[in-house]
Write a structure and sequence with these properties.
Elements lengths: L10 H27 L2 E3 L6 E3 L3 H7 L2 H34 L4 H9 L6 H11 L6 H8 L10 H29 L3 H9 L4 H12 L1 H18 L1 H7 L11 H11 L3 H25 L8
Antiparallel strand pairs: 1-2
Helix pairs in contact: 1-13, 2-13, 3-7, 3-10, 5-7, 5-11, 7-10, 8-9, 12-13
Subcellular location: Cell inner membrane; Cell membrane
Family: Belongs to the binding-protein-dependent transport system permease family.
Pfam family, one: BPD_transp_1
Length: about 290
C-alpha cells in the first residue's frame, strides 16, 4: 500500500485550509451565533439584549404554531423523500432498459437539478395556479375544485410535488450509478433460474443498491428540512393558514419578518438538534438493514 509523501510538511494543511475556512465561516460561526442569541432577548433592531436563559426555548415549545410547524415538517419531509426516491428509482431502472438514445434520456432527466429551488417553485405555481394555470384549468374542468391558495391540503400536495421534482435528478444519478455497478451475471443467472423481473429486482437488485438507498434517504431528509425554503416561499409563502409552514420557514418568518431574533435563534438550535437526532436514528436503526457488499 503506497503512502503519499509531500515535499513540504505544511502543504497538506494548505490544501485543506480553504475547506476548513469555509466550514468555520459558513457553519460553525453561524451555529455559535445561533446558540448565543437563543439565550438572549433582543429588541427588533438588535440594539439591546438581555440574558433570559431557556425562556426562548420554553416559549417556542409551548407555541401551538411551532407545534403545527413540526407536524407540517414531518408530513412534508416524509412525503417529499418517499416520492422523489421512488420516482428516481423507477426512472433509473427504466433508463437501464433503454437501448437507443440512452444518453439523451439520462441527460433530460438530469437537467431539472440545475433549476434553482425558487424557479422550480414558480414553474409549478404557474402550472397549477387556480387563476391562470393550465393544469389547474384541466383539473377544474374535470370536476376537481383545485385551489392551493385556499385549501391547505392542495397547497401541501403542490409543494411536495415541486420539491420532489427538484430532487429526482439528484437521486436518479446515484441510482443509475448503483445499478450499473451490479454484475450482470447475477441478474442473468436469476433469469435463467426462472425468476421474473419483479422478483429479480427485490431479491437481487434492491439489496445490492441498499447502501445507495440509505445514503439518499439521509440526503433527502436533510434536503426536505433545509433546501426547500425557496420552493415553499415562492409557491405558498407558508400558507394558507400555515398549512405549509415548515420549521425552517418559521425560523425565517419569526426572525426576518417579525424580527423576533431570540425566538428565531432558539428555533434554529432546535431544528439543528432535530436533524442531528434524526440522522443519528437513521444511522443507528435503518443502517442495520443495509448490507454492504
Amino acid at each position: 500500500m503506497s503512502k503519499a509523501v509531500f515535499p513540504n510538511k505544511w502543504l497538506p494543511y494548505l490544501l485543506v485550509a480553504p475547506q476548513v475556512a469555509i466550514t468555520l465561516v459558513f457553519f460553525y460561526w453561524p451555529a455559535s451565533q445561533a446558540l448565543y442569541q437563543s439565550v438572549l432577548h433582543e429588541d427588533p433592531f438588535g440594539l439591546k439584549s438581555k440574558f433570559v436563559g431557556l425562556a426562548n426555548f420554553q416559549s417556542v415549545l409551548s407555541d401551538p404554531a411551532y407545534l403545527n410547524a413540526i407536524k407540517v415538517t414531518a408530513i412534508f419531509s416524509i412525503s417529499t423523500a418517499a416520492l422523489s426516491m421512488s420516482l428516481a428509482l423507477l426512472l433509473a431502472t427504466a433508463a437501464e432498459k433503454v437501448v437507443r438514445g440512452r444518453g439523451l434520456y439520462r441527460t433530460m432527466l438530469i437537467w431539472p437539478y440545475a433549476v434553482a429551488p425558487a424557479v422550480a417553485g414558480l414553474l409549478w405555481m404557474f402550472m397549477f395556479n387556480p387563476v391562470m394555470g393550465t393544469f389547474a384549468y384541466m383539473l377544474r374542468r374535470n370536476g376537481f375544485d383545485w385551489n392551493p391558495l385556499l385549501d391547505g391540503d392542495h397547497a401541501m400536495l403542490l409543494v411536495v410535488v415541486a420539491a420532489a421534482w427538484k430532487q429526482i435528478s439528484y437521486n436518479f444519478l446515484f441510482f443509475v450509478a448503483a445499478l450499473q455497478s451490479i454484475p450482470k451475471s447475477l441478474i442473468e443467472a436469476a433469469a435463467i433460474d426462472g425468476a421474473g423481473s419483479t422478483k429479480r429486482f427485490w431479491t437481487i437488485v434492491f439489496p445490492l443498491i441498499a447502501p445507495t438507498t440509505f445514503f439518499l434517504l439521509v440526503v433527502n431528509t436533510v434536503y426536505a428540512f433545509f433546501d426547500t425554503f425557496g420552493i415553499i416561499d415562492s409557491v405558498t409563502g407558508g400558507g394558507p393558514a400555515r398549512a405549509t409552514e415548515t420549521l425552517v420557514y418559521k425560523v425565517y418568518v419569526d426572525g426576518f419578518v417579525n424580527l423576533n431574533l431570540g425566538s428565531s435563534a432558539a428555533q434554529s438550535v432546535i431544528l439543528m438538534a432535530i436533524v442531528i437526532a434524526l440522522t443519528a436514528f437513521q444511522f443507528r436503526y435503518v443502517e442495520k438493514r443495509v448490507h454492504y457488499a
